[in-house]
Amino acid sequence: MENLKKKLDNIEDYMIKMRRYFHQNPELSWKEVDTSKKIREELDDMKIEYKIIKETGVIGHIKGKLTGKRLGIRADIDALPVSEKTGLPFCSKNDGVMHACGHDAHIAILLGTAKLLNELKDELCGEVFLIFQPAEEYIQDSGAKYLSQVDEVKNLDRIIGLHIWGDIELGKASLNEGPIMASADTFDIYINGKSGHGATPHLSVDPIIAGVQLINSLQTIITRENNPLEPQVISVTAFNSGNSKNVIPKTAHLEGTTRAFNNSLRNRYKEEMQRVIDGVEKITRAKIELDYHDGTPATVNEKEATILGRKVAKEVFKDGFLEDYPMLMGGEDFAKYLLEIPGCFLLLGGAGEKGKVSQHSEKFDIDESALKLGAEYFVKYATEFLK
Ligand code: NI
After folding, report:
1. Ligand 1 centroid – CA 336 distance (Å)
2. Residues 178-232: tens digit of each pLDDT
3. C-alpha span between 229 and 231 (Å, rounded)
4. Is 254 in the same domain as 315?
5. Under DSSP, is residue 101 helix (H, G, I), strand (E, B) or coil?
6. 76 CA to centre of ligand 1 in angstroms
7. pTM
8. Ligand 1 centroid to 207 CA: how many Å?
9. Same domain, 173 and 199
10. 248 and 339 share a domain?
11. Residue span of the structural domain in which 282 resides
12. How far is the CA of 246 from the centre of ligand 1 (A)?
């Protein structure tokens, strides 16, 4: 293991260089053309074979000397529509696009991991698949939906991933069994009434009243139907209707999101919301249509995968390993792999110099010392799993 420490020291500069390159050249979901090209060039340099999936996805393949199990390691590669205000010397060159979630670090960590595992391949019994996944942030049609269906991925025995986390200090990490991040679906609701004069509501069907009734009634799914010990959220985040002081409008449009940590509860949202909508239609005479968009399921870490992950993480982070970091209401599309493959997802402390800055903020930055810790975790996990 002394040997590994030295190897990690040797690739630290490489990972920092990579992280800065990707930080400076961010690309939005499904548009990661240059990002994907750069990843392939790096894999070419390492003489690692790969396959291209959906134009920007890349799956690298390292084959150990002996046959054995198959491990997938995933990194997401897309950036966000955020205008960077960090003032970093390697700040984004693409206006209005920024690696504000740390996926630049994820690519760098996986490339560093690839380098080391490729050097160690004679000691591995089995195969490693390096999954560079596009479009994690594009919740309606995210990359994991497609990459999880590729044969190489479907046949994996296990999959691991991590997210650098701005709310966790450098040198710390969390890996809990069971649900760690919530499901994240979205919806549109279209309300159709009958327009009329504000003075004669009896001659119209008011879509605003229908919308108000509906928003209130949707909340009762959470407060009156759901077991309060199971955290759930329905948020209506947009309500648009009307443009005059004395006209009752014809239509209203609501938008929002649902969250749950339990995938069987998540799967019930659509039916429950439809039932409430049917009732509000009756009460208000408005016609209401629900368009529910499946986003990502809850991220649920599998038991055996997590047991090994925690053992490895305790070696890497020592006293910095967080035993009981709380669950997060945010969603992560790594969850889609976990529906089919046993695996686990680690939260890697990476709070930058200026302290904790939330993910997706225009000032989000990480402490680059976290890169080495991330690679150490992946490499040790892989060598343990493919012993
Ligand atoms: Ni992210």
Report:
1. 14
2. 999 999 999 999 999 999 999 999 999 999 999 999 999 999 999 999 999 999 9
3. 6
4. no
5. coil
6. 8
7. 0.94
8. 37
9. no
10. no
11. 184-296
12. 45
